[in-house]
Write a structure and sequence with these properties.
By secondary structure, the protein is an all-alpha fold. It is 64% helix and 0% strand. The mean pLDDT is 91.
């Protein structure tokens, strides 16, 4: 009888451990979703400017933002 209970305990704990591991893994993926997306698809988030082009002045960028959305709040 003792061996039967040991086997039942063993297989139930293996099954529940597998379920817990899957829940923890999927929870970790959800927590780090943004970071993983940036790591797997960096071309969506980071732009490299052309080598021969200079950055635009801040005043010109502010005018462009105000032209597209006059109600925009611009902070530093």
């Amino acid at each position: 009888m003792k061996i039967l209970f040991r086997n039942i305990h063993l297989y139930l704990s293996l099954a529940s451990g597998l379920v817990i591991a899957i829940v923890c893994f999927t929870g970790g993926v959800l927590v780090f979703e943004k970071e993983l997306d940036q790591a797997w698809h960096p071309e969506r988030f980071f732009v490299t400017p052309p080598a021969n082009q200079q950055p635009l002045p801040l005043a010109q960028l502010l005018e462009g933002v105000k032209a597209t959305d006059p109600k925009a709040k611009i902070g530093e």
